[in-house]
Amino acid sequence: MAALLCLVPTSLVEEIVVEEQKEKRMVSEVGEEEEGVTLEFLRKKMADFAKERDWCQYHSPRNLLLALVGEVGELSEIFQWKGEVAKGLPDWKEEEKVHLGEELSDVLLYLIQLSDVCGINLGQAALRKARLNAVKYPVGLDKEPLSKSNVGGGGHESDCNAHHS
């Protein structure tokens, strides 16, 4: 990360630091830190970000989708040569986890922007899809544990959220 910052003009680095400080103040002011950040909060944040920079003209559904795919590629590169990775990433260095968080955030933010310009309420769409999946895959349909051959990493349901933070 430090090597990358060397390529960024000092004024931009200062702007990023100032923005991070503003964000911390804003997050604590709106109570998002305690409550959890909402999709709507992120949607508004990204819409304001694009508007302030006059980037809305470039944010067509196609362009946002292609940017999203590019970010998914960057996310994939992190895992590319690691083989299977344990939940919670116990063997990862802190800077690797920070990088992963940044790439996951890029994917999430582009997805939120894409849904916004398409007029899709992502939260409602996700809840609807979860309900459809519950109907499609009812509890008790198949109680056989999944093997590693048909699901990567095993299928014990008690493991699902073991490292959820």
Automatic annotation (TrEMBL):
Q: Which cofactor does it need?
A: Mg(2+)
**In which compartments does the protein localize?**
Cytoplasm, Cytosol
Comp. bias regions, Basic and acidic residues: 156-165
Any one of the GO BP annotations? DNA protection
| EC category name | hydrolase
Gene3D superfamilies per the UniProt record, alphabetical: MazG-like
User: What would be an example GO MF term here?
Assistant: magnesium ion binding
Please list where the region (Disordered) is annotated: 146-165
Which SUPFAM superfamilies does this one have?
all-alpha NTP pyrophosphatases
Q: Which GO terms describe its cellular component?
A: cytosol
**InterPro entries linked:** DCTPP, MazG-like_dom
All copies of domain NTP pyrophosphohydrolase MazG-like, residue ranges: 60-126
| Keywords, ordered alphabetically | Cytoplasm, Hydrolase, Magnesium, Metal-binding
Catalyzed reaction equations: dCTP + H2O = dCMP + diphosphate + H(+)
> What is this enzyme's EC?
3.6.1.12
Assembly, in brief, is: Homotetramer.
The job of this chain, per UniProt, is described as: Hydrolyzes deoxynucleoside triphosphates (dNTPs) to the corresponding nucleoside monophosphates. Has a strong preference for dCTP and its analogs including 5-iodo-dCTP and 5-methyl-dCTP for which it may even have a higher efficiency. May protect DNA or RNA against the incorporation of these genotoxic nucleotide analogs through their catabolism.
> What is the protein's name according to its record?
dCTP pyrophosphatase 1
